[in-house]
What we know:
By secondary structure, the chain is α+β, with helices and mostly antiparallel strands. The chain has one domain (34-212). Helices cover 28% and strands 26% of the residues. The chain has five helices and ten strands, in the order H-H-E-E-E-E-H-H-H-E-E-E-E-E-E. The radius of gyration is 20 Å and the shape is globular. Residues 3-42 and 121-132 have low confidence and may be disordered.
Amino acid sequence: MSLKRTLLIGVLGLGVLSLAGFTYSRWGMGAPGGCFPWGGGPQLMRVGTPAEAREAVEAYLAPYPELRVAEVMEFSNHFYAEVEEKETGIGAMELLVWRDGRVTPEPGPNMMWNQKYGHRGMMGGGMMGFQPWGAVSPAQMPIRPEKAREIARQYLVGVMPGAEAGEPEPFYGYYTLHVLRSGKIIGMLSVNGYSGAVWYHSWHGEFLGMEEGHDE
Length: 216
């Protein structure tokens, strides 16, 4: 085989691989903006309501019947979904639903602090099979819900005077809380269940509404 022909085949091969990679990333499990190699499907739809966002998340979670949508919130930038384990009721992960139909893992604590379903879980074989890597029940985290809420309150006094911390929702490794003002949601933050570090969810935009509960 001539050198010219070999080079031509190589270039064509790289082109095919690049196209295949783009297609997988754009329409398959590695949708744009996503960091986890699971979830997401080839069918995208415009999302304009919390109910439609819930449908998108349920489709995203279809391969994992042990999980369900617990809460959907609408913000000006996107929709937010809290996903929980059916058996335990413990928060499993936090997802973002974009108005073009993409469903992606939420950045921040969901990726970096989540011991079972986040990056740490992926290191131990999670993500694809949800095999925990050092994950323990939130009930065993040294920082209890009451303490997490107090930490959140102290944080808000310094950065958002007048804001209040809602009830802590436990995940594997951390808690997520609503931030309220005059009893109305204005944002969200998370508190690490081991170090007490606070991570404000600055990416949401203005809160518009929410839909709680699940179908089961």
